[in-house]
Specification:
By secondary structure, the protein is of the alpha/beta class. The chain has helices spanning about 1-15, 40-55, 70-80, 95-100, 135-145, 160-170, 185-190, 200-210, 265-280, 285-290, 300-320; strands at about 30, 60-65, 85-90, 110-120, 125, 150-155, 175-180, 195-200, 215-220, 230, 235, 255-260, 295-300. It folds into two domains: about 30-120 and about 255-320, 3-Layer(aba) Sandwich (D-Maltodextrin-Binding Protein, domain 2), CATH 3.40.190.150; about 125-245, 3-Layer(aba) Sandwich (D-Maltodextrin-Binding Protein, domain 2), CATH 3.40.190.10.
Length: about 325
């Protein structure tokens, strides 16, 4: 009996115990369903840099852009990668809108929610040389424009297109909406005078604002942004008025989140929840939020799932009203 006890003790001493927590064993791919230069791409590459700098994982992080079909290319890639714990997708409200606007058999429930990292605002941007002093000026010019005033945005029947529809409804006018593959491309077209305005996120026009090529008129939000550090033209994000205060009563924010493919294990999901929680707590991430005027809003687990369910219902109503739902 004593010999059996000694043998069992020796086995335990040799390191037989609880299994180690799961970790990636090959490079991790973050799929961005938009072209390079847009806000989603910038966020993914910021996260990539933070993870590598802080050495949160031993494996490399690779960012891959898959923008075709308004982001459906990237979403389908993740759907088809069920069970692969080495793939992630960074997404926005398009996680609902792309399936609603197409007949593709896609749904956010096909994926594994990891974490929401922030909410993003939209601004009404114009060329720096444009005569408009506020949203009211632009809407007045749109009413008399013939042909219709051109407004650029990312993708068709997505967030930017939805905002332009809301502007049309509020202003009793019609715009010519021009879809691009990213907010970066839309900003370039605005700076070149090819469109009269865009509805880009702060990050997507920041460089051109600082470069004197574009400027914001207002933010599509119920409240002003909170960041008070000067950004460009002697202004901070907090100095930009709401569009509602200029007579254009339209507000909208979208999620910035991370998902895995479906059919991954709880341990694999838990690894990435912990990873992005760590990312959200770093000074570099907080600086990124402030620089790009993102609203800090970290959620995981049931809090994230509850948000997704409510946000999906909201977007179904908005998309139906805009006539963007697939028939």
């Amino acid at each position: 009996m004593k010999q059996q006890w000694l043998a069992a003790t020796a086995i335990l001493a040799a390191g037989i115990g609880p299994a180690a927590a799961w970790e990636p064993n090959k490079p991790v791919e973050i799929v961005v369903p938009f072209s390079a230069g847009g806000a989603s791409d910038q966020m993914a590459r910021t996260i990539q840099g933070i993870i590598q700098k802080q050495q949160f994982t031993k494996q490399p992080i690779i960012v891959v852009n898959k923008p075709a079909a308004g982001g459906a290319e990237g979403m389908l890639d993740i759907q088809k990668s069920a069970g692969d714990p080495h793939k992630l997708i960074t997404t926005s409200s398009g996680i609902f809108m792309t399936p609603m606007a197409t007949k593709l058999a896609l749904n956010w429930t096909d994926y594994t929610p990891v974490a929401m990292l922030a909410q993003d605002s939209f601004l009404l941007w114009v060329n720096a040389k444009a005569p408009y002093k506020n949203a009211g000026d632009l809407m007045a010019a749109a009413k008399s424009a013939n042909p219709a005033m051109k407004i650029g945005g990312t993708s068709s029947k997505r967030e930017d297109n939805l905002l332009v529809f809301a502007m049309e409804k509020q202003g009793g006018t019609k715009f010519a909406y021009i879809p691009y593959t990213s907010g970066g491309q839309a900003s370039t077209q605005l700076s070149g005078g090819h469109v009269e305005a865009t509805t880009n996120n702060p990050a997507e026009d920041l460089a051109n604002w600082r470069g004197g090529a574009t400027r914001p008129l207002c933010v599509f939000a119920e409240q002003k942004m909170t960041y008070t550090e000067k950004v460009a033209d002697g202004q901070s994000w907090a100095d930009i008025p709401t569009c509602a205060s200029q007579g254009l009563n339209v507000s909208y924010q979208m999620l910035r989140g991370m998902f895995m493919p479906g059919k991954v294990s709880k341990e694999q999901q838990a690894f990435y929840v912990d990873l992005f929680k760590k990312v959200s707590e770093t000074p570099e991430w907080k600086d990124y939020l402030a620089r790009n005027a993102l609203a800090a809003d970290y959620r995981d687990g049931e809090a994230f799932v509850s948000f997704l369910k409510a946000d999906e219902a909201k977007h179904e109503k908005l998309m139906t009203e805009a006539g963007f739902m697939a028939k």
